């Protein structure tokens, strides 16, 4: 199934079911008012939503309308929890080198994760206001999951069962704040403005074989101002999503609607390019001896779209955003 | 004004207005369904709520009922944002010594803050399930504020204007996870289970002169298993709440309902005692040469109540909780 959220004046927006080919949508508020209520009541709602999805795909819904991603909010416009891993160790190791921070202890064996702002998730085509070009404005292309309720001290099986939906994320970052905030040990506040989401959240079956080992076996194709930036593959994630969820739930239960991110998708092969500017910069420093690429300027745009290995478009739709000056 | 939240099967609970003496309450859902909607629509709702509060205090509300804190949820049972400062530098310096962590850079001049779980705030008398006594179970007595909307890059004045309500918090902590999580630089996940709140959230005027310089000029009286533990005073906070809010909003707006904590209340004078066990332990190590106090066991209880300088009870009611084994 595929879901999106349209504005209706409420904090959670209104639920629509989107057709498999992303061309049509239908209001689903008779089944659940919003996506948060879907993941809260998955067992109760899933069959009705599946029936509506099947009818929509069969062209049998009179009330269907053209799906326009530019009208979408984030699938969850707000949540009570956003936890972002750094599960591509290749990226983490490069970032340590980029920012000259101390090696993270147990980085290969215990997931690293920060808790971020979840009050203001941005939609796929929202302009992104930032206070200053001097802050090191960067994108981070990621995959993520939305969970149902997960019990405290969940096993890996319970964590896997907690995965309701898959999403695609741009975790906006301000690099000039990162090293100082990491040095506090308290994590990121100013370095991490609100994250953005592709328009469509999907059930894992929509990925077919590409949902494997608790990982997105998809490329994340990224262009910056229309130029190719990278297409790293999700399969190289060093921790699976169930492992990230179990880490998060070690000492507290997760209420439904928890969003857990992979961290920047990153591959060992230089051919894959990168999913964030900071990583490209450190690769330039290592490979070329000097940093050539600067961070984003106001007016710059970034586009992110998942792709299957055979080149088909991924199921999430496209993130396409412009950075603007905060008024 | 004083507010509390009672359960009604929804994520946000239902709003009640509580009398100044905390003996009576009245349903306020005809004005606003829950406290989150109050802070979202403060200008629109405040006058009606004040009128109801005045009538309740005058004994003129037929529908008033006895206020029972044991039935209360946290004032906000969930929120989209919980940011906890470490604004009592005395505490921070002692904790560095306790856990042998590196000095935090710019600790005296830039607030330190972590983002915590806000999906499952606990009520004032809820039993608190924890996975293991070996995790270093600790309480942290704190003061906090709930904001309305705060713009990105808010000035100190705008930050001060964003303060809607004052609250009292127990920021549960698991000390065995803290040093490793700090060493990642990514902040606390496993070290910080869901926080608990005193039953009543109040407008700043309820503190009278004790709300001064953006600080709670109140003692926070803490007992552990019925024995006095400390009564540190909020006036020694090194950063004010407007400073914490402006720090949080530096690169992102805060939507209404953001909860910002002071960090553990802590005083330079040893006579004040402490608001968490970890701080007492390091003081024992410094002053006595050995740690005598162990962390909490299942069945242990902690009680926290604010007090005015003249000995009157603070306005928030009492946090009184027992730690139990997670089933």
UniProtKB/TrEMBL annotation, chains A, B:
Q: Where is the Fumarylacetoacetase N-terminal domain?
A: 1-78
PANTHER family, alphabetically? BLL6422 PROTEIN, FUMARYLACETOACETATE HYDROLASE
Task: Recall the taxonomic lineage recorded for the source organism.
Answer: Bacteria, Pseudomonadati, Pseudomonadota, Gammaproteobacteria, Oceanospirillales
InterPro entries annotated for this entry? FAA_hydro_N, Fumarylacetoacetase-like_C, Fumarylacetoacetase_C_sf
Organism superkingdom: Bacteria
Q: Name one Pfam family in it.
A: FAA_hydrolase
All copies of domain Fumarylacetoacetase-like C-terminal, residue ranges: 83-322
Report the source organism: Marinomonas profundimaris
Identify a single GO molecular function assigned to this protein: catalytic activity
Q: What is this protein called?
A: 2-keto-4-pentenoate hydratase
């Amino acid at each position: 199934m595929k879901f999106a959220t349209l504005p209706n004046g409420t904090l959670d927006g209104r639920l629509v079911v989107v057709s498999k080919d992303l061309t049509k949508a239908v209001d689903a508020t008779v089944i659940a008012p919003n996506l948060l209520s879907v993941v809260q009541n998955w067992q109760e709602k899933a069959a009705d939503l599946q029936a509506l999805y099947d009818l929509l795909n069969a062209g049998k819904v009179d009330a269907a309308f053209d799906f326009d991603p530019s009208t979408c909010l984030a699938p969850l416009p707000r949540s009570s929890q956003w936890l972002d891993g750094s599960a591509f160790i290749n990226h983490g190791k490069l970032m340590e080198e980029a920012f000259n921070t101390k090696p993270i202890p147990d980085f290969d064996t215990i997931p690293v994760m920060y808790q971020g702002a979840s009050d203001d998730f941005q939609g796929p085509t929202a302009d992104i206001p930032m206070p200053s070009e001097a802050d090191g404005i960067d994108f981070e292309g990621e995959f993520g999951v939305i969970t149902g309720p997960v019990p405290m001290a969940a096993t890996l099986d319970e964590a896997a069962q907690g995965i309701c939906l898959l999403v695609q994320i741009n975790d906006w970052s301000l690099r000039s704040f990162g090293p100082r905030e990491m040095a506090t040990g308290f994590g990121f506040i100013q370095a991490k403005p609100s994250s953005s989401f592709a328009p469509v959240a999907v059930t894992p079956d929509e990925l077919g074989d590409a949902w494997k080992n608790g990982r997105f076996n998809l490329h994340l194709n990224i262009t910056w101002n229309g130029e190719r930036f990278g297409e790293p593959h999700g399969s190289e994630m060093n921790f699976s999503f169930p492992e990230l969820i179990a880490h998060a739930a070690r000492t507290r239960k997760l209420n439904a609607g928890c969003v857990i991110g992979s961290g920047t998708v990153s591959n060992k092969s230089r051919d894959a390019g990168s999913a964030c500017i900071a990583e490209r910069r450190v690769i330039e420093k290592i490979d070329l001896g000097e940093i050539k690429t600067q961070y984003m300027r106001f007016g710059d745009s970034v586009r992110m779209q998942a792709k299957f290995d055979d080149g088909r478009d991924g199921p999430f739709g496209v993130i396409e955003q412009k950075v603007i000056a905060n008024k």
